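Subject: sequence -> structure tokens, single chain

Hey, anyone have a minute? Need the predicted structure for the following. Not urgent.
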Amino acid sequence: MSNIHGAVDAASPWVRRFAPLIPQGGTVLDLACGAGRHAQLLAELGFSVLAVDQNIEAISSIQNSKILPQCHDLETEVWPLEGLKFEAIVVTNYLFRPHLGRLPGMLTENGVLIYETFAQGNATFGKPSNPNFLLNPGELLALASEHQLKILAYEDIYLDQPKPAMVQRLCAVKGLPKEHVPLQFQA
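Reply:
Had a minute. Here:
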């Protein structure tokens, strides 16, 4: 098993911040998981994790029975995860708009969407610079609103670490009563 401190250090502060909101005992989808830094963190926190990417070579080397790596091309017309449900979906540094609207429907009641990726303006700092891979202003807010997710936190900001970037990020819950939602916005 891996070391929780290494997983915590490697994971995005945004994911670390909101992972405790995921219903215990649940299964989490780490979409476009890359080398598995978030899958590893979530597994160490006790969650079963479906870690999906088009190349699972790096994550397959992680020895943790709670992580199930699956190789899928996430950018095909046919959605490879059709019919699956999760207590949480974590997405970082990835955007493919044709399937973005599918994610809220894959959440169970009280399921948590934790999303963080590059936003318009990032071209100033380097890659990604293609508008197809950059969120438009308020795009994650619109996604949450369209699917009646309760927004817990949202930011559309400049970050200087780990490298200068424009980032948009959201944490939202499916079905949480409005009176239990503390809103936190930073623009």
